[in-house]
Amino acid sequence: MSSEALSNLLREDRRFPPPPELAEKANVTAAAYEQASADRIAFWEEQARRLHWDREWDTALDWSNAPFAKWFVGGRINAAYNCVDRHVLAGKGDKVAFYWEGEPGDTRTITYADLLRDVCKAANALTELGVKTGDRVAIYMPMIPETVVAMLACARIGAPHTVVFGGFSASALRDRIQDCDARIVIAADGGYRRGAPSPLKPQVDQALTECPNVRNVIVVRRTGQDIDWTDGRDLWWHDVVERQSDQHTPEFFDSEHPLYVMYTSGTTGKPKGILHTTGGYLTQVAWTHWAVFDLKPDTDIFWTAADIGWVTGHSYIVYGPLANCTTSVMYEGTPDTPHRGRWWEIVDKYKVTILYCAPTAIRTFMKWGEDIPAKFDLSSLRVLGSVGEPINPEAYVWYRTHIGGGRTPVVDTWWQTETGAILVSPLPGVTSGKPGAAMAPLPGISADVVDDSGNSVPNGSGGYLVLTEPWPSMLRTLWGDDQRYIDTYWSRFPGKYFAGDGAKRDEDGDIWLLGRVDDVMNVSGHRLSTTEIESALVSHPMVAEAAVVGATDPTTGQAVVAFVILRGDVDTEGVDIAQELRNHVAKEIGPIAKPRQILVVEELPKTRSGKIMRRLLRDVAENRELGDVTTLTDSSVMDLIRENLAKQP
Ligand code: WTA
C-alpha cells in the first residue's frame, strides 16, 4: 500500500525510554552494537565462552557449504551439563530452578541439585531402554517438571528430542513420530486444563497403532486418570526412572550434534521438522535471554508464560534460563482457572520480575478488564516481553500501563521456530521503545527489509524481512529434507534467509513486523497488512479483538473483510457498528484500508498456540467449504461464527 497511508498508523509517536536505574545497571549497553558490527564472529565467540566447552572450537563459523551452517566447529559440549551440572559444581545446587505451579493449586519447588538428580536418573533410564546417541525421542507432555527433565535427559545422552505440544491430536503426534522415526515416547496420563484432567495417553495409544518402530512409552502419572496399558511397551516413569542411580557421567558431543527437532506448520500440509544443533543454539539462547530481558540471575524471577511444546518454551523456559542459572516460574494451566486473575496471583505470589508472553494473551486480558490485574501486587515486575505475533500499539500500552505499572520497558521480540532465538528486539536498558515496533536487529544479527527484487528499501517503506548473515542458533536444515530447506528459506532471495514476514522500516530506520506475507493483502494494487487494520480496529473503544483477511474480490483483486469481537461493556444501542468501524479504519490508515465487510462475532478461531486461523476466516469470507479445523482450540467456534453471520444483514 502507499506508504503515506501506511505510516498514518505506524507514525506512532509515543516513546518509552529505558528507566534510568535500569539503564545504569543494564547488562548490555549501546557499545554492544558497535562491538558486534566491528567483528560479528568475535562477538559470538565471546558469547559462546559463557558456556562450558569440554574442548574449544577451532573455527567459529563454517559457511563454505551455505546455506548449511556450522558453528563452533570442532568444539565439544553437552547442553544438559551446561544447564545443570555446571551450576551445581559452582555451589548453586540449592538455588531454585523452577517454582512450579499446577493448575489445581499443587506446587513444587525444584532446585538445581534436584534437577541434576532427576536428569541423571532419567538419562540412565533411557540408556537402559536402549536409547543411543543420535536416536530420537518424542515427548508429549503437559507443563510439568518431568517435561524439562525428559528434555535434558535426552540432551545429556545426545538423543535429539522432539516435543509435540500436548494440545495436538493423535494424528499430528503420529506424523511427527513417523517423520523423525522416534523409537521411544515419553508421555503423561494427562494434565490439568480449565479445571479438569485432560487426557494425553489415549492420543499416544492411537498414534502408536501406526508407529510400529516405537518400542516403549514412558508414562508420568500426573492426573491419575484411568488409562489403557500395553504390557511390555508401556512403563511408568516412577518405576523405570525412580530406581535408577542418580549418578551419570555426561559425554561431550560435537557442537553440531542435533539437540532437537521441532515441527512447525508450513504453507503446505506437511509440517516442517526444524533441526537445531547444540553449541550455536545454546550460545544464542543463553546470550539473548541475558541481554533482552536484562537478566540478573541472582535476583530475578523469570516467567515465560508459554507452553514447552513451542519453541518459546524450549528456548526461554528450558535452555536459555537454565544455561543462565535462572530461577523461573512454570505454570501448568490456563489463565482463567480457577479465576481470571490467576496469572497476576502467580506474579504476586512468586514476586515475578520478568514476564514473557504473547499479544493474544494480552488482548484477552484487555477484554477481561484492567480491574482484574489491579487487585494484585505486580510491583515486582521490571521487564515485560512479547512474542509470537505483532503487538498492536494499544495492547503494548495497556500491557506497560496495567501490568507494568507504567514503569517497565516492553520488549517486542521477533523470532521464529527456525531462528531458535530472538533476533529483532529492543534492549531494555538501551532502546527507547515504540509501541508496536520490534525496533532493531540485536547485536550480532544482520537483518534487512527488502523489496520484491531483494533490494534494501529506504526508510519509510515496506518489504520483506530477511537475514543477510548466518547466526549461531539458526536452523541447520529441515529434518530429512535439505531441498525443502533450501527452497523455503534460501531461494526467494538468493543468499538471504527469507523469513516469510512482511516488515517496514520507519522514518527513523526502526523495524516493524507486519505479519506473515501470506497475510498481506493486495487491494487495488495497494499492499495492506492484516495486522495494521486489526490494530486500527482494536484501537476503537468498541472493539476487543479483530481479525482481518483478504477475500477475493472481482474488482479490487482482494478486499478487506474484518471479523470483530465487541467489548462486553460498551453500549452499542443505535450505533451503526460497521459504518462506525469502517470510518475509524479510514481515519487511522486511509480510505483504501476500509474493510468491505465488518462481521461481528463472539469468538475467533485460534490454533492451540493462540494464532488466529485467518485461512478459515478467509473461507467464510469467500463462502467456501471450511478447510482443516483440527488444530483449532475449539472447532465449534467456526459453527458459531457461521450461525451468527447468517443472522447478520
Ligand atoms: C510471528 C514464535 C511480529 C512471525 C517465536 C514469525 C512475530 C512467526 C513476532 C514465528 C513479533 C513472532 N512481532 N511477529 N514480535 N514474533 N512473530 O515459529 O510471523 O511460532 O514468522 O515462533 O510468528 O512463529 P513461531
State the helicity in percent bands. 25-40%
Assigned CATH class of the domain at 524-646: Alpha Beta
**Main beta sheet:** 7 strands, mixed
Radius of gyration: 24 Å
Q: What report would you give on this structure?
A:
With 649 residues, this protein is an alpha/beta fold. It has 20 helices and 29 strands. The relative contact order is 0.11. Bound molecules: 5'-O-[(S)-ethoxy(hydroxy)phosphoryl]adenosine. 5'-O-[(S)-ethoxy(hydroxy)phosphoryl]adenosine binds next to helix 12, strand 20, strand 23 and strand 24. 5'-O-[(S)-ethoxy(hydroxy)phosphoryl]adenosine is lined by residues 264, 310-312, 387-390, 412-417, 438, 499-501, 513, 516. Its cofactor is Mg(2+). It is an enzyme of class 6 (ligase).
Keywords:
disordered N terminus; 649 residues; 20 helices; GMP Synthetase, Chain A, domain 3; 7-stranded mixed sheet; binds 5'-O-[(S)-ethoxy(hydroxy)phosphoryl]adenosine; 22% strand; 5-stranded parallel sheet; alpha/beta
Helices and strands in order:
Elements: H1 3-10, H2 20-24, H3 31-38, H4 40-48, E1 59-62, E2 70-73, E3 76-77, H5 79-92, E4 96-101, E5 107-111, H6 112-128, E6 137-140, H7 145-157, E7 161-163, H8 170-180, E8 184-188, E9 190-193, E10 196-199, H9 201-208, E11 216-220, E12 234-236, H10 237-240, E13 253-254, E14 258-264, E15 272-277, H11 279-292, E16 301-304, H12 311-323, E17 327-331, H13 342-350, E18 354-357, H14 359-368, E19 383-387, H15 393-403, E20 410-413, E21 447-450, E22 461-467, H16 482-490, E23 497-505, E24 511-516, E25 520-523, E26 526-529, H17 530-538, E27 543-553, E28 557-566, H18 577-588, E29 597-600, H19 614-621, H20 636-646
Parallel strand pairs: 4-17, 6-7, 6-8, 8-11, 11-12, 16-17, 16-18, 18-19, 19-20, 28-29
Antiparallel strand pairs: 1-2, 3-13, 4-5, 9-10, 14-15, 21-22, 22-23, 23-24, 25-26, 27-28
Helix pairs in contact: 3-4, 5-6, 5-7, 5-12, 6-7, 8-9, 11-12, 14-15
